[in-house]
Protein backbone atom coordinates (compact mmCIF):
# COMPACT_ATOMS: atom_id res chain seq x y z
CA UNK A 1 0.00 0.00 0.00
CA UNK A 2 1.08 3.54 -0.47
CA UNK A 3 0.39 6.58 1.64
CA UNK A 4 0.89 8.72 -1.46
CA UNK A 5 -2.76 7.92 -2.23
CA UNK A 6 -3.78 9.83 0.91
CA UNK A 7 -3.28 13.57 1.24
CA UNK A 8 -4.06 16.24 3.78
CA UNK A 9 -4.48 19.77 2.43
CA UNK A 10 -5.99 22.62 4.46
CA UNK A 11 -7.85 23.74 1.33
CA UNK A 12 -9.56 20.35 0.89
CA UNK A 13 -12.11 19.17 3.46
CA UNK A 14 -10.52 21.45 6.10
CA UNK A 15 -7.34 19.40 6.04
CA UNK A 16 -8.85 16.01 6.84
CA UNK A 17 -6.98 13.14 5.16
CA UNK A 18 -8.62 12.33 1.82
CA UNK A 19 -7.98 10.00 -1.08
CA UNK A 20 -5.78 12.02 -3.43
CA UNK A 21 -7.74 13.67 -6.22
CA UNK A 22 -11.06 13.30 -4.42
CA UNK A 23 -12.91 14.88 -1.54
CA UNK A 24 -13.56 11.46 -0.01
CA UNK A 25 -12.14 11.39 3.50
CA UNK A 26 -10.47 8.48 5.23
CA UNK A 27 -13.13 9.00 7.91
CA UNK A 28 -15.94 8.47 5.37
CA UNK A 29 -14.39 5.20 4.23
CA UNK A 30 -13.96 3.99 7.82
CA UNK A 31 -17.54 4.90 8.73
CA UNK A 32 -18.92 3.07 5.70
CA UNK A 33 -16.91 -0.03 6.57
CA UNK A 34 -18.00 0.17 10.21
CA UNK A 35 -21.65 0.19 9.08
CA UNK A 36 -21.04 -3.05 7.24
CA UNK A 37 -20.51 -1.80 3.70
CA UNK A 38 -18.12 -3.95 1.71
CA UNK A 39 -15.24 -2.53 -0.27
CA UNK A 40 -17.15 -3.44 -3.43
CA UNK A 41 -20.18 -1.45 -2.25
CA UNK A 42 -17.97 1.55 -1.47
CA UNK A 43 -16.36 1.31 -4.91
CA UNK A 44 -19.78 1.13 -6.52
CA UNK A 45 -21.01 4.25 -4.74
CA UNK A 46 -17.73 6.16 -5.27
CA UNK A 47 -16.46 5.34 -8.79
CA UNK A 48 -13.37 7.54 -8.37
CA UNK A 49 -12.05 5.23 -5.65
CA UNK A 50 -10.03 2.11 -6.32
CA UNK A 51 -9.57 -0.96 -4.15
CA UNK A 52 -5.98 0.21 -3.62
CA UNK A 53 -7.14 3.65 -2.39
CA UNK A 54 -9.61 2.10 0.09
CA UNK A 55 -6.87 -0.18 1.44
CA UNK A 56 -4.50 2.81 1.61
CA UNK A 57 -7.10 4.63 3.72
CA UNK A 58 -7.24 1.66 6.09
CA UNK A 59 -3.47 1.52 6.31
CA UNK A 60 -3.33 5.27 6.96
CA UNK A 61 -5.87 4.94 9.79
CA UNK A 62 -3.99 2.01 11.34
CA UNK A 63 -0.75 4.00 11.24
CA UNK A 64 -2.47 6.98 12.86
CA UNK A 65 -3.77 4.76 15.66
CA UNK A 66 -0.36 3.19 16.17
CA UNK A 67 1.07 6.62 17.00
CA UNK A 68 -1.82 7.74 19.19
CA UNK A 69 -1.07 8.47 22.83
CA UNK A 70 -3.45 6.67 25.15
CA UNK A 71 -4.19 8.02 28.61
CA UNK A 72 -5.86 5.83 31.20
CA UNK A 73 -9.06 7.29 32.55
CA UNK A 74 -10.37 6.20 35.91
CA UNK A 75 -13.71 4.42 35.85
CA UNK A 76 -16.07 6.62 37.93
CA UNK A 77 -18.01 3.52 39.04
CA UNK A 78 -14.95 1.87 40.58
CA UNK A 79 -14.35 4.58 43.18
Q: What is the name of the CATH class? A: Mainly Alpha
Poorly predicted runs are none
Number of helical elements? 3
What is Rg? 15 Å
Approximately how much helix is present in the residues? 40-55%
Biggest pleated-sheet summary: 2 strands, antiparallel
The strand line-up of the biggest sheet is 1-2
Distance between the termini: 46 Å
Q: Which structural class best describes the helix and strand composition?
A: mainly alpha
**Annotated CATH topology:** Arc Repressor Mutant, subunit A
CATH superfamily: Winged helix-like DNA-binding domain superfamily/Winged helix DNA-binding domain
DSSP strand count? 2
Shape descriptor = globular
What oligomeric state do these chains adopt?
single chain
Give the tally of structural domains: 1
Amino acid sequence: MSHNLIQSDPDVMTGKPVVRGTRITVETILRKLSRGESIDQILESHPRLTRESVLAALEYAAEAMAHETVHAVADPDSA
